[in-house]
Amino acid sequence: LICGCICSSPRPAFLIAPNPARRFCRCWQLFHPRQMLAVVSSTRDSRCTTSFDQNDERDYFIRQVSTKAGALDVEVFRGSAIPAQEYVLEQQQLLGRVISEEEAIELLTINYDEDGRYMSNTPQYEPEINFVAMFNGTESAEKSSFARQNGIIGVVSAQLRRRSPLIAGPSTTSDDDDSSTALPSVRIPSPHVYIANMKVDDKFRRRGVGMALLSSVREYANSWTERMGEEIPLVLSADNDNTGAIRLYEKFGFAFLEQNDVFCMMTLTSNCCLDEL
User: 0.85 exceeded by the pTM?
Assistant: First the structure.
């Protein structure tokens, strides 16, 4: 499938070019450089197959996780799981139990479906999906450093939430610090796509990975906008002391929805600034 005809796929996979300033086609919101041809296939037996034109100078690309194996790679990158190969060895050495890597993946991703989506117990929430930045460089030293998580250098999760609770209003402290006033609560827009768990490898920070991951989530929200016939905004939260992340979100176009003494909520219309990209 070559770019413009990816919509003919019954199960299109997201493939987002790393530079959000480049143009894009609206055929399932596939970002691409002007002269990049991307061939995408997504099956339950492979994480994702891609090929690039040599004109793409970046050493990473973005895709949506679409298998349990890919979901496990995300957990390994986040530090919450070990690779299937290590689990197999651990079971054999400690318990004398022999299992295959496929069985290990099933055991380590019990909360994920076959498409690599984290299953929610909340009826009004869709399954949570992950977008990952994949290393695509040629340096063997860098490539080996990301081998344990099969090349992942960044990740962000996204979830469509059809209904939202009230969030606590901020407390504003007076000058003498003796009293505070609780302002009214603010309702999070419903429905919305909630963004969480963004992480980028230290070696790839300040190289556009975070912006590219956010771009992929925005296009995911746009796909829901088209399906549901109503605007689906993006919503996220951040600790107030995480100033680097907040600057990134503001640069991308997020605005404060609410802020208290500990954290802030930010929102962005999914189509905001789309014409400028």
Answer: no
